[in-house]
């Protein structure tokens, strides 16, 4: 396993934690595909991108195969959540303005980065972000959480973050959602109810998670202190400054990247429309 050193001469930082709030999460997945291509080709340094969106539920491919998926999506809409289907693995997750998403985009130009090393890099970054609880943050599957995985992040057995990974063209995007503000149990209850509506006790070959809300929480709840997305953004910028031995480049997409972004965005929207029969 390759141990990644997050200390880099140059980091690129793209903050879309405010500008993307009212946009579809599909735009963020298109942005990460664009950066995967650019970083993988060596046209951009390793990059950290932040993103926040209004109330949405990002579904995985298996969620789309629920026996009563149309009714389940209608349920989400009655709760004022917009469903979309993402282009990476995993199952349903909640997005809202109390949840910060961070994408860590790397390439394999120097050496191969295996899957676990990509996840470990994100875990290391999160521990740097929250030194008060760093020693208490554990990475293992939290049974009963939504979108469970072997790199769920938890404190005292309660999950506050989940990590996914997308790889393309020698680029690697490790994406994490961090439940910072609000009530983690309420978000988990939404997904529990989504599956109940979508399954209606019908037996399926795929084993969907049985969500038990009490195993999930926000950092605000776990740290027992007021903490906001805005404060975590400040912390993250400080951490990236410390990880950069030369400079942090605060650069939006340039013209060539914008052209590729429009390509990926069109493809993702078309795929989402087909999946959801829009």
CATH superfamily: Bira Bifunctional Protein, Domain 2
CATH topology: BirA Bifunctional Protein, domain 2
Number of helices: 7
Q: What value does the average pLDDT take?
A: 94
Tally of distinct domains: 1
The share of residues in extended strands comes to 15-25%
Distance between the termini: 43 Å
Question: Class, according to the CATH hierarchy?
Answer: Alpha Beta
Total beta strand runs = 11
- What is the string of SSEs from the N terminus onward? EHEEHEEEHEEEEHHHEH
Evaluate the radius of gyration: 18 Å
User: Structural class given helices, strands, pairing?
Assistant: alpha/beta
Instruction: Please tell me the CATH architecture by its name.
Output: 2-Layer Sandwich
Major sheet: arrangement of strands:
7-8-9-10-6-2-1-11
* Largest sheet geometry: 8 strands, mixed
Q: Roughly what percent helix? A: 25-40%
Characterize the structure shown:
The structure is a single chain. By secondary structure, this protein is an alpha/beta fold. It has one domain: Bira Bifunctional Protein, Domain 2 (BirA Bifunctional Protein, domain 2, 2-Layer Sandwich), CATH 3.30.930. It contains seven helices and eleven strands. It has an eight-stranded mixed beta sheet with strand order 7-8-9-10-6-2-1-11. Helix 1 packs across helix 7 and helix 2 runs antiparallel to helix 4. Keywords: Acyltransferase, Transferase. Its EC number is 2.3.1.204.
Record the SSE blueprint.
Layout: E1 8-16, H1 25-40, E2 47-51, E3 56-59, H2 69-78, E4 82-85, E5 93-95, E6 99-107, H3 115-129, E7 137-139, E8 153-155, E9 158-168, E10 171-179, H4 184-199, H5 219-222, H6 229-243, E11 244-249, H7 255-276
Parallel strand pairs: 1-2, 1-11, 3-4
Antiparallel strand pairs: 2-6, 3-5, 6-10, 7-8, 8-9, 9-10
